[in-house]
Amino acid sequence: MKNNVKIERIKLSITQGELANRVGVTRQTIGLIENGKYNPTLQLCIAIAKELNKTLDELFWEVED
Amino acid sequence: MKSWISFLLPDDEYRERKILYYLAEGAIFLVLLLIGLFISSRYIPILHINLEVSIFLAIWVFIGYVFIRYILSGMEHADIATDQAYSKQLKFVLSKSVSFVIIFNLVFLLFMFPDSLKEWLGNIGVSIVGGLILFFVEYLSLKKSYEKNKELL
Q1: pLDDT class for A63, splitting at 50, 70, 90?
Q2: ipTM field
Q3: Does the residue A64 lie in any domain?
Q4: What are the structural domain ranges in chain B?
Q5: Domain that holds residue A35
Q6: Residue of B9, B14, B15 best to disrupt the A interface, most CBs of A under 10 A
């Protein structure tokens, strides 16, 4: 699943490890989500969105060009 | 979603999901093996395997499958993504394997002191083989984790 997690995380100067600690997963899981290799549960999506101060739409909604 | 198996599963949801998949796959292989053993023991007398061997086979097919899938998944060392961290962890794995060999021999000496050179060599040999297997498994898991994590940076 394509998403904007990596872009928004970098904008806030947070590392994968820091974000992982804050939402209670491993750094690998954050990496997999950012690379579209793992679809997180809604619960984790919300936790990530809260940490990045974004809405679910802004992070995970695909907009077709 | 919680079940009685939850206490065996990691907190990280990706690892939890993957381990559940491996357990389910292992269970399917186990059922297929048991069906095969049942058919062979009932209808093909030439292929009859005794009960003890069948149970041993069933247990190890399940445990072995789940264990191998977990080791090759690259999930174990989720934070090893740099050369420096990899080298440091590799040294730790090596020292753990050496410690295993030493502790194994010490414990063995405490409870069963060898009477002959043959027993001494046997004990040392078993501990070295155990240490090598431990190192190989840990090394494989670490390498897979490192390769996977590097791609995700």
Answers
A1: low
A2: 0.89
A3: no
A4: 9-73, 83-152
A5: 5-59
A6: B14
